[in-house]
Amino acid sequence: MTATAQKYRALIDELESLKVELENPKRPGDSAPVVSRVLEAAGDLLRRTTSTPCEPKLIQGVLSLLPGAGLKSWGEGVEVQDVQQKLERAASHAVEAVLPEADDDASTLVGWAMQDLMARDRLESALVALETAPREDAKALGARIRQQLTPVDAIGRRGVASLTALNTERRAEAGLLDARCRPQAWWLTERSGIEDDGLVKVLSGEAKGSLGPAEREADRTVRAKRPRSASFDELFRFDLGLSTPAETTVIRSQAEQDPELKLVLAAMAAGDEAIDEVTQGEPSVLSSLSPAVSSEPKSTFQVVTERAEFKVLVFRSKAQLQVVVQPRHHDRFATAAVYLAHEPNRAVPSAPGEHGLYFDLGKPARTMGSVARVVVKLTDGQSISTEVRL
Prior knowledge:
Blueprint: H1 3-23, H2 32-46, H3 56-64, H4 68-77, H5 80-98, H6 106-132, H7 136-157, H8 160-163, H9 167-174, H10 186-189, H11 199-204, H12 213-223, H13 232-240, H14 245-257, H15 259-279, H16 285-289, H17 291-295, E1 300-306, E2 310-316, E3 321-327, E4 333-340, E5 343-347, E6 350-353, E7 356-360, H18 364-367, E8 371-378, E9 383-389
Antiparallel strand pairs: 1-2, 2-3, 3-7, 4-5, 4-8, 6-7, 8-9
Helix pairs in contact: 1-2, 1-3, 2-3, 2-4, 2-6, 4-7, 5-6, 5-7, 6-7, 14-15
């Protein structure tokens, strides 16, 4: 079973856990995060009944338990424009992955592109769950959001030629969908055939090939100079000193034309000066705990998992590999542990840092090709397991 298939298989256990949580609610406050997890997990399974069989009674039972207030709050928090921005960013990163500034940037860019692309897939799963739920308020909410998505999908489909750079990953995801669901999942299925795999290279002029009318239109898009607005992840890398020289140059150049970005960089610089003044030149907490992350200019940074409660990040350099579990809601995050495949019962030592818990896995060559298991425990007692391919 592939890692992608295992990811969806794990949703059955998660859904059973969420059912228990909804039957015995203990967490105070807004239940929208729980609603989000239920809708995405249920919808993912509803769209993959062949590759990931799940008892329909379980799915319908969990959907019937959704609290009305939490469902309404989740719906109010859905931003379709955010989905459009992620689709556009996925297309941009996909093209950059085929034509990277450095060879080792390609896999990182593919990972970022697929994360953004799957945001549309997760929303589709949530909508399918709403449309299947045995309650009218859920169906009405699903219809409203789907109507809002219509123009977003129309815009996104114009850039599907760029997504052909992700065809290997797109085919892996599309292959797990039920046949009836594939036509709707255009972000995974349109132009995902092997014959389209080299399209971006043809458009860029790096490979020979003929172009039809649609490809010529895409060619103009690929060849056009694309302004790159600095994303949160890019600024995060910049602030940690992980940006490549090319990325640093681009960000500083953009700041000259963007007053808001210029203020952000100034604030970062002021923060660094304040830290230096307080510590009198001593290394920061982050650098003392994980020197490879802050001192290696050629480290790469990747977001592996992003949930409402936490993120799992991987920092790579030639000398060091680190997994970082970053809490997003400290009131819900209890602790985390990392286990390597060759020592499944022995947790990797951890140390707190500026951005969360740091797990030092040593030199990348030692663990290359293996899988690490990250287990996060929440304050409500729930444990969430995530696999990280090293």
